[in-house]
Amino acid sequence: MSNITEEYVEEYIRELLPDHQGQLKVIEESALENQVPIVHKEVAALLKVITKASSSKKILEVGTAVGYSSILLCQAAGDGAKVTTIERNEKRAEEARINIETLQLSNSIQVIEGDAQEVLNFLEGTYDLIFLDGAKGHYKEMLEQCTNLLKIGGILVSDNILFKGMVANDDLVVRRKRTIVNRMREYLQYICNHPQLDTSIIPIGDGVAISYKRLEE
């Protein structure tokens, strides 16, 4: 139970959605078995719909893990997709490269190993879609960099923004997670009132924020 929505609703949605097949299913099962965090099934479906609906081709991801969502985004974008993904953990970055190579997507997905806050400073151009799924306590610090890298009319998707329900309910907060919870609350307040972003909060998975970049008023 994620504490984001009722368990029966969560289970019903996940049962409705078709399972992934082939190598992507293998990656998914391996990640779950080894307790590697990947996007929830319903969030994966949302990412695919957003990518297709926005006709996104140039995509940036912060937080690669084993490459699961990078592959999802790339496949959803289709022909001409270019995904850049950042991972600070050397072992995870290597696993991601292997998974990406297995699916013959190495020409479409670039894995950059390093600290996202540093890497973001050196990226050039703008992106159609940015998926923020890195260190939860540093979302706000990365927001300005991400906003600058996002094209006008582009979409920023921030994952895990309700953090097991703790962000919305003090009674759920684990003491050692208090700092992350407070920082995420600041982040949500900021993006919901940002002069260049129209934001919607969706209570699925571990909480998702979808932000649209418009011209600053």
From TrEMBL:
Entry EC number(s): 2.1.1.-
Binding-site positions, Mg(2+): 133, 159-160
Binding site for S-adenosyl-L-methionine: 39, 69, 87, 115-116, 133
Alphabetic keyword roster: Magnesium, Metal-binding, Methyltransferase, S-adenosyl-L-methionine, Transferase, tRNA processing
Family membership noted in the UniProt record: Belongs to the class I-like SAM-binding methyltransferase superfamily. Cation-dependent O-methyltransferase family.
Pfam families on file: Methyltransf_3 (PF01596)
HAMAP family the record matches: TrmR_methyltr (MF_02217)
Keyword Magnesium among record annotations: yes
GO MF assignments: magnesium ion binding; O-methyltransferase activity; S-adenosylmethionine-dependent methyltransferase activity; tRNA (uridine) methyltransferase activity
Function: Catalyzes the methylation of 5-hydroxyuridine (ho5U) to form 5-methoxyuridine (mo5U) at position 34 in tRNAs.
Enzyme category, top tier: transferase
GO annotation, biological process: tRNA methylation
Reaction(s) catalysed by this chain's protein: 5-hydroxyuridine(34) in tRNA + S-adenosyl-L-methionine = 5-methoxyuridine(34) in tRNA + S-adenosyl-L-homocysteine + H(+)
Lineage: Bacteria, Bacillati, Bacillota, Clostridia, Eubacteriales
InterPro entries from the UniProt entry: Cation-dep_OMT (IPR050362), SAM-dependent_MTases_sf (IPR029063), SAM_O-MeTrfase (IPR002935), TrmR_methyltr (IPR043675)
Protein name: tRNA 5-hydroxyuridine methyltransferase
Subunit structure: Homodimer.
